[in-house]
Amino acid sequence: MHPDLERILFDEKTILEKVKQLGAQLSSDYHDKNPLFICILKGASLFMADLVKRVDVHMEMDFMAISSYGASSQSSGVVRILKDLERSVEGRHVVIVEDIVDTGLTLKYLRDTMVHRHAASVRIVTLFDKPSGRKVDIAPDYYGFTVPNAFIVGYGLDYSEHYRNLPFVGVLKSDIYATSEPD
Ligand code: XMP
Ligand code: MG
């Protein structure tokens, strides 16, 4: 447990079990496709590292950073590329690896971008899905857990860049938003 958390939703063992299942599913779906796994920094970094170890296929990895929230816990709806991919996605089977889908704005932007760049196919795997937050009609192709409409941190997910290193995921106490100054 961590003093800034109200409660733990998923412990380390539960998360890794789920990541293994997702890895097995992706291994079977992509065995002959030489997929390009794209990690969306920084939130999906821990998930990506654990996931690709369980994806038993010939594949490549790339990384992209986009801004969606800034330091606040509210979605701005503004998506901007901070770091782009190193290689072209043209003709590639792309798997976008996300930490959490909330409003769906980021996901929609990313999918549209990959389609626009002529990827052969685009699917999204997210560890967490928060369907109650949706503002656009979009769903991930693979997801680990559905989460309630609360702000969660840990296992890559942050509040103002903190808590990403926690090996478990929990709900942040609401007085943390009230007392800490976002960067
Ligand atoms: P949208 O709203 O575009 O947002 O689907 C996806 C991105 O928003 C962040 N996000 C969160 N980050 N705890 C977090 O630490 C949360 O509960 C949460 N909900 C959304 C996250 O960066 C994700 O990639
Ligand atoms: Mg984030």
UniProtKB/TrEMBL annotation:
It is found in: Cytoplasm. It catalyses: IMP + diphosphate = hypoxanthine + 5-phospho-alpha-D-ribose 1-diphosphate; GMP + diphosphate = guanine + 5-phospho-alpha-D-ribose 1-diphosphate. InterPro entries: HGPRT (IPR050408), Hxn_phspho_trans (IPR005904), PRTase-like (IPR029057), PRTase_dom (IPR000836). The keyword Ligase does not apply. Pathway: Purine metabolism; IMP biosynthesis via salvage pathway; IMP from hypoxanthine: step 1/1; Purine metabolism; GMP biosynthesis via salvage pathway; GMP from guanine: step 1/1. Its cofactor is Mg(2+). Residues 11-159 form the Phosphoribosyltransferase domain. SUPFAM superfamilies: PRTase-like. The keyword Cell membrane does not apply. Its main location: cytoplasm. Its EC number is 2.4.2.8. Keywords: Cytoplasm, Glycosyltransferase, Magnesium, Metal-binding, Nucleotide-binding, Purine salvage, Transferase. It comes from the Bacteria. Pfam families: Pribosyltran. GO terms for molecular function: glycosyltransferase activity. Purine salvage pathway enzyme that catalyzes the transfer of the ribosyl-5-phosphate group from 5-phospho-alpha-D-ribose 1-diphosphate (PRPP) to the N9 position of the 6-oxopurines hypoxanthine and guanine to form the corresponding ribonucleotides IMP (inosine 5'-monophosphate) and GMP (guanosine 5'-monophosphate), with the release of PPi. Belongs to the purine/pyrimidine phosphoribosyltransferase family. This is Hypoxanthine phosphoribosyltransferase. It comes from Alicyclobacillus fodiniaquatilis. The lineage of its organism: Bacteria, Bacillati, Bacillota, Bacilli, Bacillales. The gene is hpt.
